[in-house]
Amino acid sequence: QVQLVESGGGTVQAGGSLKLSCAASGIIFSSAAMGWYRQAPGKERELVATITSGYLTNYEDSVKGRFTISRDNIMKLVYLQMNSLKPEDTAVYYCYAKTPIATMGRRDYWGQGTQVTVSS
Fold first, then answer.
1. What is the H or E stretch that residue 9 is in?
2. Alpha-carbon distance 75 to 93, whole Å?
3. H helices then E strands: how many in the chain?
4. Closest Cα partner for 40 from 92, 96, 1?
5. For 87, left (φ over 0), alpha (ψ -120 to 50), or beta?
């Protein structure tokens, strides 16, 4: 059974920092592409950052230079370091995994989400 469990969300003032963590189980973590998405109230879920199995990273334009995604293949963790937070970063943040091989027809997995609130 695949599980992605996020932690580290909370409330912070604008300009502050938070670090999100996602613990993965049930997948070959080192082979999976990992990512963070977010969904603000009334908006669609959007990509924030991704990291491949080869440690290549990609960021949504509005977070470039402020957020950093990283992974620890030994501990099966993926992180999102968020600095210089803005009120528009307020959203539920979801951990995402995409495996190279389908299991029971599935390659995409999501965590339950963690709330990040940035006050002005």
1. none
2. 21
3. 0, 11
4. 92
5. alpha
